Amino acid sequence: MNHPKMINMGSVHDVMQTFAYKEIRAHFRDHDGWECQKVPSPGTRDEVFFITREVRGKKEVVALAVSFDEEPAVAALAAVSAGHKGRNALKAQYLLVPKAADVSAVPKEIQILSMNAFGFVEGKLVWLTKKKNAKHYAQPEAPAKTEAAVPACEPHAA
């Protein structure tokens, strides 16, 4: 029951999860056969998903946790992955985090996916799609462009 003088304006958490789900769909597309199912995450606020698809009659399963913490933990991912050993082993484990999150404590076997919509700026989680929060993060170096071997044709003088 809401307090009579308070106005319920929804939850920021819901909006954040909506953007996280869009990020998941960008990495694991429907047209590639991926299906996403949320699973209970024991004892943490991180959301955890099993993402599955069939490839040549074999089922591929990956686990993905979503964390909005600056120093994300992998406890939820470890808990849901524990039952997947042997023939039921996971193909991979992923952690979806905001840009500039400190992932130094994350084990190397867990692959990190960075969100495009959220990032940390001066220790605060910000929504990067707002113009006032726009921040450019370092991108992996692109290969150097080569110049054309033959000069372009010049127009004829009339």
Topology, please?
Blueprint: H1 12-27, E1 35-39, E2 47-55, E3 58-66, H2 75-81, E4 92-99, E5 110-121, E6 124-127
Parallel strand pairs: 3-4, 4-5
Antiparallel strand pairs: 1-2, 2-3, 5-6
Walkthrough of the structure:
The protein is α/β, with parallel strands linked by helices and 158 residues long. The chain has one domain. Helix content is 15%, strand content 30%. It is built from 2 helices and 6 strands; from the N terminus they run αβββαβββ. The chain has a 6-stranded mixed sheet. 22% of the residues are buried. Mean pLDDT is 79; it is low at 1-8 and 140-154.
Q: How large, in whole angstroms, is the Cα Rg?
A: 22 Å
Quaternary structure of the protein: single chain
Q: How many angstroms separate the termini?
A: 83 Å
Strands in their spatial order, largest beta sheet: 1-2-3-4-5-6
Label the structural class: alpha/beta
Contiguous low-pLDDT stretches (5 residues minimum) are 1-8, 140-154
Number of strands: 6
Report the biggest beta sheet as strand number plus sense, adding barrel if it closes. 6 strands, mixed
The shape, in one word, is: globular
Q: Give the number of domains.
A: 1
Mean pLDDT: 79
Spell the H/E element sequence: HEEEHEEE
* Secondary structure: helix percent: 10-25%
